[in-house]
Design goal:
The chain has about 1450 residues and is α+β, with helices and mostly antiparallel strands. The strands form 7 sheets. Strands 14-33-32-31-15-27-30-29-28 form a 9-stranded mixed beta sheet, sandwiched between helices. Helix 32 runs antiparallel to helix 37 (about 1090-1110).
Length: about 1450
């Protein structure tokens, strides 16, 4: 159900301490409430009584300022920045003439500029908040006042008012439902803004108030509600209604919460219980926090350090001044006396200290902060202008809604994602089915050339078809038309066994309202195939079968719940035959089949395994014929169980179990929950970048887990999946402990007994340890006792180790953080909302964090919006990692606000997430580009900018320090004040800005192909305290050279006329010129990506320096301003001397040569990953040019495009993915007739208490020998267009192919890239670079794959040093890889240094090895010299986060594969 586009701009305000006061002022000057509210009393239609409790009004205030408070409050906030306060302090010092050596305008101009820019930005943001507030507060609602329904603005609604709501209107406040237009006081609401679920829910008023539908009756209603105080629990409400000397209990089923939308209900009335900030929606909104990056926080620390360093230098120079005045200065008193108020050396030293603080303040100029904001603004525009993040379908571009967090995008370690609408489209489609052993739904794999397969057109023969079903298999339609009995019964079951409601306002215009999208998809499929569900009454169901209307008598509905995992209906057809139809999870339905179904069950199981492997949501269907005697006897027991006073649910379940036996299997369905485009590829690539993805969803557990499989977060190749579903603190603690034991056990390399593992898995999932799933391998009886003893011993050892890895309070063991961090293996954790509530408690949160963070994937189900925020805050607090939250609904706003970075998706659930986010776009797949391209580049650019900025300013400023020892510590400056003012504004500002905005180490496509390039940002390697001190050391070294080299040379130098050059102004011009040239050469070395703008800024700044220098020393300025420009012609005279230029050249060489030597050595001995990627790129470009020059054709790269990624799933794990509602079914409501109307049929659903976990089975990881057998039994299918040719050439010859030269076999459990072949060396192999590969165990298990290298005898043996990965690392081959004769004669050897993996998994180059690519004329390679092996090392595809890929299926476009365009501007 799509939320209308006219939703309020802001449901969620920033809840600030100032707001309560402001809100109460708007409400009429009410004084602040005293004390904490313990209970709420509300009397209907009595504003005077309710106002004495000083309840909050319904006015929402999110703005921070008004016209009067803006200037003082904004300035107060800005001067909380350490840097702004520091520069204000310097400005005050410069206004004191006795200590100021510089003019005050050198500081005040940039300070005012920074403050003004920030103030304008804050004012603009607050203006939009005011605008949003006004839009929400001025919406109109219908309020009952004095018996008359009147229009009132939302801001004027008060607690106790009775409000009238009409269909499709938003609920203005939290209301107690009094009556509605529907029978029995029912109404239907959509809660997408609250919990993200788009299916409708039912609410019902009390029976005593349901008849108060008339405004006159409601005006006389004087009931009083006593209830709980405002809280954030969306699914709970406790209160009592006192009316007419009686009291009636109230629950959440009687409440309409703010943010809900009234659906399919003409009108309803409700009394306001909570208003404004007290509503549950606002209580879940969380606080808007001012977000700043880790670099900002580090810069604040560095500014304090620099200020301390500045004070130390000032103290040293002041002490020097005092000593000089005592020792030398006294000798000059006769002709150079002290100026008042200086009367002694100590006071002179005191003033000298402050003078040097002013002079040396340029180590951190305010232009640094101006430049940072400009760079961030440029990065934000790049994101906004990126056409690759533009969605043409919705006409939505990416938007950077903040300019302060761009570099943080390059440091993300944890992503917290919503599910519905974020990972999925929330659209279910009937995809495949199995009927009586026949599988339907496959598309013709070989369509005619130039034609795409067309879906079936059902409207040709079925006028009631809805036209939305895309089904391609015509054989199923023919089976229906020919009247095949099993097929007809299959669709008859789908049209009868459900709780869908139909709405047919005009003839043939059917609209289905289902409690879950899955059920709607199945009924819609039956409708298209000729079995159209038309209407229902409490006792009948009318279906149009193949054009003929048939009415069935509905005898009973056996409802679904999470324990039964199935639902059934019992109907009587017009001929009087009684039949039970059942649909449910195959794991429970197969146990209840008649023994004669054994053969059909095996065939259907194979089909189910295939569907589950495709990531589809499966469901089994069965029926049973009942005689009249059986029905009569059972119905009597059924009625008795329904009337039982105690244990009613248990009695009904036992009765259901009795009748649902000996059923006949019909088949199975497969439904696809459409993922958003590119989700699996995005998650796979982000996982390779060492980013952990957690899914936090309000949806039910089975749905979330199935989506986890579909999007490749969960795979069967995982070591183990842990289900945490405890309802008590102790049970959750025990399950977390048990999960840690299993992790430790697996990491120790010990084989866990399968029966033991299954028992524990069952107990983790639902607390029951018995029962084996179908097909689970049983241990041999004679080995059972030995295995049990071994398992117990292993469990005890694992328990002892796991207990050491968790922090427990009360004086228990201290944490051992290295234990779980060093665990090998891929694990996943699934935890329910009620278990998460216990896990987030103070004494357990560390155990939960340690367990969850050791897992590759974490899925939290049935979580509230506030719990989402609490999980994010937990990781922020314990892991100190950068977090990103992404969602599309209002229920994600709290999570988005809490994370370091919030991303909103403009989807089908409104724009609330977008309005609260820092970045927004329309599809989840754009996240990989936002992080791996824009985020990584922003972090890289900002780090390079800061390193260079600190370097150039220390080189500039420290010259004053050295000069102090030669000028009597008099605070005399080396340069003139104009150079000091213009140095950071004109001479060096633009080149570093160009580098900070445009620089890049590798092109964008390489950033996506090599996800490991992202890791330096996560580890904060490019700018930290160590890098800062290195920059400072280089700056100090440069300042020493720039001062002492000119000083040493010029002190003895003379002009051509013999006149000495040793004067102050000549020294100043020489030093300043050398400084500008040195820093310009340095930034030329630091710039990795040259554009026309870089060239213009770097060389233009040099030209600007000389132009301004000659102008300031010209006679023209001296004629007009003789007191300001009194060094007439000194610049020209100085630069005319050859010795000056030789001095400048010598200083430049001494400054730059060590830097060049260090960088060359580092590149050779300890290269970074980006250096290696750049080097391989240069090799490819050189080879490509060579190939083009000789007429050779390059191999076209195969990336993550169509066909590269297929549907991957559980590889045969039989699991029902049917998305039944979390609540119990509403069959009882249907049969009661309470929700039946003649005018329209409405959908209803009843919330129920939580049931036990749905998971009955957990798949274990396949054994290596099973994978070997599977791989050896069938050759790997080829995705390449020409792979079959090379594969046949080797296999037909019968030549054995060693593992080192053979490509991997492809199976559903394989995580090895399927594309195989050997490209020419001048062409990149994006598949090898971007697609993840399996762990070593999976690689070693792949055998028997066709050899795909060129037709040449394979080497007899592989080198012993060849890595295991090379066996499965052969890139694709196509016909275009054939080389000309001239090419084959060339033999090139390329030595590429590849850094070894560091402790954190990042390639830091320590102990790096060299991979030699020897390109022989015939194109064969040794196993250890394959480019694929090198590319795997570069892309990090051997990491634990490697995703499972499989060729040959459908896929969404992956990262763009483009040719490099050197010199082009970055987007």
């Amino acid at each position: 159900m799509t939320v209308p586009k006219d939703i309020p701009d802001k449901w969620f305000p920033m809840i600030l301490p100032l707001q309560r006061k402001k809100r109460n002022q708007v409400a009429g000057g009410i004084k602040k409430r005293k004390g904490k509210e313990e209970e709420r009393k509300v009397r209907a239609n009595d504003r005077e009584y309710n106002e004495k409790f000083q309840y909050a009004s319904n006015c929402i205030v999110t703005s921070k300022y008004n016209v009067i408070t803006f200037l003082p409050v904004n300035l107060f906030e800005q001067f909380q920045e350490v840097a702004n306060t520091y520069f204000l302090f310097l400005l005050i010092l410069q206004l004191i003439p006795q200590i100021s050596s510089l003019s005050w305008f050198t500081t005040i101009v940039p300070l005012v500029l920074v403050l003004s820019i920030t103030a304008v930005k804050d004012a603009t943001d607050d203006y939009f908040r005011h605008k949003s507030d006004n839009q929400v507060n001025n919406r109109h609602s219908q309020v009952l006042i004095n018996g008359i329904v009147q229009k009132e603005k939302w801001m004027n609604v008060k607690v106790g008012d009775i409000i009238k709501l009409e269909n499709n209107q938003f609920v203005a406040a939290d209301l107690l439902l009094l009556s509605s237009s529907e029978p029995h006081g029912l109404c239907y609401i959509e809660t997408a803004e609250l919990d993200g679920e788009t299916n409708m829910k039912v609410r019902q008023s009390l029976s005593v108030t349901s008849e108060l539908g008339d405004p006159n009756n409601l005006a006389r209603f004087d009931g009083e509600v006593v209830c709980e105080p405002p809280n954030n629990k969306l699914d709970r409400f406790c209160g009592t209604l006192y009316w007419r000397e009686s009291k009636y209990p109230l629950s959440n089923q009687n409440m309409l919460l703010r943010g809900c939308v009234l659906r399919n209900t003409e009108f309803c009335y409700g009394i306001v219980i909570f208003a404004g900030p007290d509503t549950k929606l606002m209580q879940n909104s969380g606080r808007t926090k001012f977000k700043r990056t880790s670099i900002d926080r580090l810069m604040n620390t560095l500014v304090l350090w620099i200020f301390g360093f500045l004070v130390c230098m000032g103290v040293i120079l002041a002490v020097g001044n005092a000593v000089w005045e005592f020792e030398v200065g006294l000798l000059f008193q006769s002709f150079l006396p002290w100026e008042p108020p200086v009367n002694n050396a100590l006071f002179s030293a005191f003033l000298s200290f402050w003078s040097y603080v002013i002079i040396l303040n340029t180590v951190v100029p305010i232009s640094l902060y101006v430049s940072v904001e400009v760079i961030r603004l440029g990065h934000s525009y790049f994101i906004n202008w990126d056409r690759r993040m533009f969605c043409s379908r919705s006409n939505t571009p990416a938007e950077a809604r903040t300019t302060t967090l761009n570099e943080e995008l390059g440091q993300v370690e944890y992503i917290f994602s919503d599910k519905t609408g974020t990972l999925t489209q929330n659209i279910m489609t009937f995809n495949k089915c199995s009927i009586n052993g026949h599988a339907y739904g496959d598309v013709d794999p070989v369509p005619p050339p130039g034609k795409r397969p067309q879906p079936l057109d059902f409207s040709v023969w079925n006028p009631l078809a809805d036209g939305g079903l895309c089904f391609y298999d015509s054989s199923l339609l023919e089976a229906v038309k020919t009247g095949e009995p099993a097929t007809q019964e299959f669709f008859r079951l789908l049209s009868l066994c459900h709780t869908v409601m139909s709405d047919e306002k005009t003839e043939g215009a059917l609209f289905y309202k289902a409690q879950s999208p899955d059920e709607g998809a199945l009924v819609t499929a039956a409708r298209n195939f000729g079995y159209v569900f038309r209407s229902r009454t409490p006792g009948t169901i009318t279906v149009q079968e193949m054009g003929k209307p048939v009415t069935y008598t509905l005898l009973a509905i056996l409802d679904f719940n999470n324990i039964r995992k199935r639902m059934s209906v019992i109907v009587r057809n017009p001929e009087g035959r009684i039949r039970l139809y059942c649909k449910g999870a195959d794991t429970v339905l197969f146990d209840r089949l008649h023994p004669c179904n054994h053969h059909l069950m095996n065939i259907t199981s194979d089909h189910l395994n295939e569907y589950a492997g495709d990531g589809l949501r499966t469901l089994a269907l069965a029926y049973r014929d009942l005689s009249e005697e059986e029905w009569e006897g059972w119905s009597e027991r059924y009625r008795g169980a329904g009337k039982a006073a105690d244990c009613r649910e248990d009695r009904l379940a036992a009765t259901y179990e009795e009748i649902e036996q000996d059923m006949m299997l019909l088949g199975a369905t497969a439904i696809e929950d459409k993922l958003q485009e590119g989700v699996p590829e995005t998650i796979a690539i982000l996982s390779l970048a060492n980013i952990k993805i957690w899914v936090l969803t309000g949806d039910k557990q089975e749905t979330a887990v199935n989506i986890g499989y579909s999007c490749k977060m969960l795979t069967d190749d995982m070591t183990e999946i842990f289900i945490i579903n405890g309802h008590t603190v102790q049970s959750v603690r025990e399950e977390l402990r048990r999960a840690r034991e299993r992790m430790v056990s697996h990491s120790r390399g010990e084989k866990v007994d399968e029966a033991e593992g299954w028992s524990q898995a069952c107990s983790l999932s639902n607390g029951v340890g018995g029962g084996d799933p179908a097909g689970w391998p049983h241990p041999h009886p004679q080995h059972k006792e030995k295995q049990e003893a071994h398992a117990q011993q292993e469990a005890q050892q694992g328990r002892e180790e796991a207990q050491g890895g968790a922090t427990k309070l009360g004086g228990k063991r201290a944490p051992a953080p290295s234990l779980l961090e060093s665990i090998s293996g891929e694990f996943a954790l699934v935890i329910s909302g009620h278990s998460l509530a216990h896990a987030l408690e103070g004494d357990m949160e560390h155990e939960f964090v340690e367990t969850a963070c050791a897992c590759r994937a974490v899925i939290c189900c049935r979580v509230t919006p506030l719990q989402k925020a609490q999980v994010v805050e937990l990781i922020k607090r314990h892991k100190k990692a950068v977090t990103l939250a992404i969602g599309d609904g209002a229920n994600d706003v709290s999570m988005i606000k809490t994370a370091h970075i919030g991303v909103g998706i403009s989807g089908q659930e409104g724009i609330q997430a977008v309005l609260s986010s820092d970045y927004s776009f329309s599809q989840f797949r754009f996240l990989q580009r936002l992080l791996l391209v824009h985020g990584r580049w922003s972090y890289l650019r900002m780090c390079r900018f800061l390193c260079y900025f600190f370097y150039k300013n220390f080189a500039f400023t420290m010259v004053h320090f050295w000069f102090g020892f030669f000028c009597g510590f008099s605070a005399q400056t080396v340069y003139d004040q104009y150079f000091i003012t213009l140095y950071n504004i004109v001479y060096t500002s633009l080149p570093v800005l160009a580098m900070g905005i445009f620089d890049q180490d590798v092109p964008e496509q390489r950033s996506l192909e090599y996800p490991k390039l992202y890791e330096p940002g996560q580890l904060n390697l490019l700018f930290n305290k160590r890098e800062f001190f290195i920059c400072i050391a280089q700056g100090i070294y440069t300042s020493v050279v720039l001062f002492f080299v000119p000083y040493a040379v010029l002190s003895h130098a003379t002009q051509a006329t013999g006149t000495p050059l040793a004067d102050y102004q000549t020294f100043a011009v020489t030093t300043a010129t050398a400084l500008v040239i040195v820093v310009s050469v340095q930034i030329a070395l630091d710039t990795g990506y040259w554009t026309a703008i870089n060239h213009f800024f770097v060389w233009g700044s040099l030209g600007a320096y000389f132009t301004i220098l000659f102008t300031m020393h010209s006679s023209l300025l001296f004629r007009f301003f003789p007191k300001q420009f009194h060094f007439l012609g000194s610049g020209q005279n100085t630069l005319e001397q050859p010795v000056v230029w030789l001095t400048i050249a010598l200083a430049t060489v001494i400054c730059i040569a060590p830097v060049l030597a260090f960088r060359f050595l580092k590149l050779d001995l300890k290269p970074q990953l980006s250096d290696t990627v750049r080097y391989t790129q240069l090799v490819r470009q050189k080879r490509r040019k060579l190939g083009e020059g000789r007429g050779g054709a390059g191999v076209s790269g195969v990336g993550l495009g169509a066909g590269a990624l297929g549907r991957l799933g559980r590889g045969g794990s039989r699991r029902s993915g049917y998305a039944f509602a979390h609540q119990e079914g509403f069959g009882e409501l249907i049969t009661s007739g309470k929700n039946m109307r003649l005018s329209s049929l409405a959908l209803a659903t009843f919330a129920s208490r939580h049931s036990s976990s749905w998971i009955d089975t957990l798949r274990k990881k396949k054994h290596a020998n099973a994978a070997n057998n599977a791989a050896g039994a069938s050759p790997a299918p080829s995705n390449g267009a020409h792979n079959h040719s090379s594969g046949s050439s080797s296999s037909h010859q019968g030549t054995p192919v060693p593992a080192a030269a053979a490509g991997p076999a492809l199976s559903k459990s394989s995580s090895v890239c399927s594309q195989q072949g050997t490209p020419t060396p001048h062409t990149p192999s994006p598949l090898a670079q971007a697609q993840p590969c399996s762990s070593s165990s999976s690689l070693n298990s792949q055998q028997g794959a066709p050899h795909t290298s060129p037709p040449r005898a394979a080497p007899a043996t592989a080198p012993a040093s060849a890595p295991a990965s090379s066996a499965a690392s052969t890139p694709p081959l196509s016909n275009s890889s054939s080389r000309s004769a001239s090419q084959e004669e060339a033999e090139v050897e390329v030595v590429v240094p590849i850094p070894a993996a560091g402790p954190g998994g990042v390639a830091d180059g320590a102990g790096g090895s060299h991979v030699v690519l020897e390109l022989s004329p015939a194109g064969d390679r040794a196993a250890g010299s394959s480019p694929r092996a090198m590319q795997e090392a570069l892309s990090g595809s051997k990491g634990a986060g490697a995703a499972v890929f499989e060729g040959g299926g459908r896929s969404s476009p992956g990262p763009p594969i483009m040719e490099e365009s050197p010199g082009c501007l970055a987007e």
